[in-house]
């Protein structure tokens, strides 16, 4: 009888979680629990969330898949106007995603790009955050999107004033949001100077030094010194 009651409880939790998908967040979505805590220290401007990931849903038609332990942590530094000056997200744990495999360890990481807080005037307040992905075993599932986090803090002492400490509980959902135009994750092949293969980074194949296409010194095509076309010491012109 006790075993049947436990099974019924687990089923109810799964069905309840399945019905709480956040419409304005894309998939995958990770639900974290209300046993977590939200804290803010005015002296340092540090906003923190410490919770546990409960379930992950890969798409709108899939059932929630439970985590076997894990941590859901956010630490953000805010200026006096509550604008983020730095901060990170880290989700870890073990989850079995069937044909995709079993993932154990650091699953998603990111750096903060946006933060907002809403004081309800009552004991339940909300926070909205966005992060640029930086890694983790499940980073591939984001498909190049950013990470959005919608947090509900019950028993909250937040009154809209970031000049004083506040805290509360923490529960909510992590999902995806489209990256801004021109925004690319770390290690991309599109832009920036991170050694990519397409645009303007040092060591690329377009216009950086030692490239093979354009005008950088030592290239093989155009007009840089030591090239093979028309520069000084070349073999053609």
Describe the structure.
The protein is built from 1 helix and 10 strands. It is mainly beta and 237 residues long. An 8-stranded antiparallel beta barrel has the order 1-2-5-6-7-8-9-10. The protein starts with a helix and ends in a 60-residue tail after the last strand. The N terminus is likely disordered.
Low-confidence stretches: 1-20, 187-211, 229-234
Radius of gyration: 24 Å
- Number of continuous helical runs: 1
Strand proportion, as a percent range, falls in 35-45%
| SS-based class | mainly beta
Task: Offer a concise description of the structure.
With 237 residues, the chain is mostly beta strands. It contains one helix and ten strands.
Give the arrangement of secondary structure elements.
Elements: H1 2-18, E1 26-41, E2 46-51, E3 53-57, E4 65-66, E5 70-78, E6 84-96, E7 102-118, E8 125-135, E9 146-153, E10 166-177
Antiparallel strand pairs: 1-2, 1-3, 1-10, 2-5, 3-4, 5-6, 6-7, 7-8, 8-9, 9-10
State the main characteristics.
237 residues, mainly beta, eight-stranded antiparallel beta barrel, 1 helix, globular, disordered N terminus
């Amino acid at each position: 009888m006790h075993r049947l009651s436990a099974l019924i409880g687990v089923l109810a939790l799964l069905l309840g979680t399945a019905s709480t998908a956040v419409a304005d967040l894309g998939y995958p979505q990770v639900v974290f629990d209300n046993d977590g805590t939200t804290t803010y220290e005015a002296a340092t401007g540090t906003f923190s969330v410490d919770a546990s990931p409960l379930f992950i849903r890969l798409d709108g038609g899939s059932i929630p898949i439970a985590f076997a332990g894990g941590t859901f942590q956010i630490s953000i530094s805010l200026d006096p106007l509550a604008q983020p000056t730095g901060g990170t997200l880290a989700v870890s744990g073990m989850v079995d995603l069937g044909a995709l495999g079993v993932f154990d360890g650091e699953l998603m990481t990111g750096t903060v790009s946006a933060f907002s807080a809403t004081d309800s005037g009552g004991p339940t307040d909300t926070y909205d955050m966005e992060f640029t992905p930086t890694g983790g075993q499940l980073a591939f599932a984001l498909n190049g999107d950013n990470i959005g986090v919608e947090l509900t803090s019950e028993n909250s002492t937040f009154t809209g004033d970031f000049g004083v400490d506040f805290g509360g509980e923490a529960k909510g959902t992590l999902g995806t949001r489209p990256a801004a135009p021109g925004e690319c994750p770390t290690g991309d092949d599109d832009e920036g100077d991170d050694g990519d293969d397409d645009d303007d980074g040092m060591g690329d194949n377009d216009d950086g030094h030692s490239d093979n296409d354009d005008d950088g010194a030592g290239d093989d095509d155009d007009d840089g010194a030591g090239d093979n076309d028309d520069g000084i010491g070349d073999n053609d012109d």
